[in-house]
Design a protein that fits this description.
Helix content: 40-55%
Shape: globular
Radius of gyration: 18 Å
Number of strands: 5
CATH architecture: 3-Layer(aba) Sandwich
Strand content: 5-15%
Bound molecules: zinc ion
CATH superfamily: Creatininase
Order of helices and strands: EHEHEHEHEHHHH
Distance between the termini: 16 Å
Number of helices: 8
Length: 253
Amino acid sequence: MTPYLLAATATMPEVKAFIGRYPFAILPVGSTEQHGPHLPLDTDNRIAERVAWETATKSLGLVLPTSPFGYAWVWKGVPGCLTLSFDTYKAMIGDLAESLDLWGIKAVYVISGHGANSQVVKHAVRELIHERYGIKVLYGMYQGIDEMLAETDSERWHNDIHAEEIETSMMLAIAPESVRMDLAAADYPPVPADYGKSELSMGHMMQSGVFGDPTPSTAEKGRRWIELASARSAALWLSFLARHGLYQHDGAQ
Ligand SMILES: [Zn+2]
């Protein structure tokens, strides 16, 4: 038995046997939202799904189906963007953690392809999960983004990545048929001084929907960054499991 399994295509007895031996799950979470004129709405879902799977093959866990709706309040009302409210998303994460806890899952890694999800997961862990269930929760964007940013050929837009070189390169590696590179163009919306300290969100600054420059993107960079993201995420996951005494990388449990 490999220490990783894709839940969506597995059967109940397969999952039962798997978690009896490896009681660990990885939950990819994304967002259905605008990514400018050249990337599809499911960009964050595709990236989260791929990085979660590659992370599992470098570590272990039952990879759950990707949650396609996230906390994307900043794009509220933009055609194609679907967001759950903060409280709904928090409750969803709490409910999923309860289900996993009832199965006997000891730890879950919520890997996000969309930055804003993590702040809600943090509150779900604190307010709904930590003191109520035995399951341990690790969460966050896929790892390695600072290293990727150091390798990009384009300038970063302010403090975020969205539909720019990193996401576009990853999508060229994952689903090249869905990327319209002929429509890719740089866009660096001006940033008011009080951005992040007032009601202003990325949504208020949106022009084309791109934040940065997708034009230097290549599939080769995307493959390298998916490899980096999954290697760093796997290392964090394994250290988290070891800190809780749940699994040692040498195989001892
Ligand atoms: Zn994205």
